[in-house]
Amino acid sequence: MPDILSHMDAEQLDELSDVFAALGNPLRLRIIEVLSQHRELCVCEIGDRLPELSQSGVSRHLAVLKNVGLVRDRKQGLWVFCSLDLERLGRLPLGVLRQMAEDARHAPEEEAAARVAGRTGARRRPERSQAPAERLELLASKPLRR
Questions:
Q1: 3-state SS, residue 28
Q2: Using CB atoms within 10 A of its CB, is residue 45 exposed (0-12), middle (13-18) or buried (19+)?
Q3: How many of the other CB atoms lie within 10 Å of CB of 125?
Q4: Which of 9, 29, 127, 128 is deepest in the core (most CB within 10 A)?
Q5: Are 29 and 83 in the same domain?
Q6: Could you read off the pLDDT of 72-94 as tens digits, one per residue?
Q7: Within this chain, do residues 21 and 85 fall inside the same structural domain, yes or no?
Q8: Tens digits of per-residue pLDDT, 45-74?
Q9: What separation, in Å, do the N-terminal and C-terminal C-alpha atoms of the chain show?
């Protein structure tokens, strides 16, 4: 099984890690979803669609998404309009997720406990299902709406 991240340098890995960290918050995922349904929205319109967030909360989450390059904004008078950075999103190597899910699905089924049984001081961890691989595959298979 090839190492699918080996072709990336440290800077690219850091950048990808930052994107995944930004997407690790459910509210930011919802903001991405709201923006994917509209070409552009004012920050207040995003807040209207996410009533559980204050306008300052929306702005704070948008700043995180902007810092990793997923969202861009433009100011018009007192209004700030936001949109997905489609060019940047198109360059993200999200196929990495699909490949990891495929690799996990075809990985040898060896018992983790058997692999570490001979180690001294090894902690036993509960068995894990293939749910993470399925979640990775689901995330990678969902296209962004434009």
A1: helix
A2: middle
A3: 9
A4: 29
A5: yes
A6: 999 999 999 999 998 888 777 77
A7: yes
A8: 999 999 999 999 999 999 999 999 999 999
A9: 34
CA dihedral over 68, 70, 71, 72, signed as positive or negative: positive
Dihedral angle sign, alpha carbons of residues 129, 130, 136, 141: negative
User: What percent of the chain has pLDDT above 70?
Assistant: 64
Q: Quick check: is 67 in a domain?
A: yes
Q: Are 58 and 46 in contact (CB under 8 A)?
A: yes
| Whether 47 and 78 share a structural domain | yes
Domain of residue 55: give its range: 10-90
Q: Specify the 3-state DSSP secondary structure of 39.
A: coil
Residues with Cβ within 8 Å of residue 45, at least 6 apart in sequence:
38
Instruction: Match 């990336």 to its residue by tokens.
Output: 8
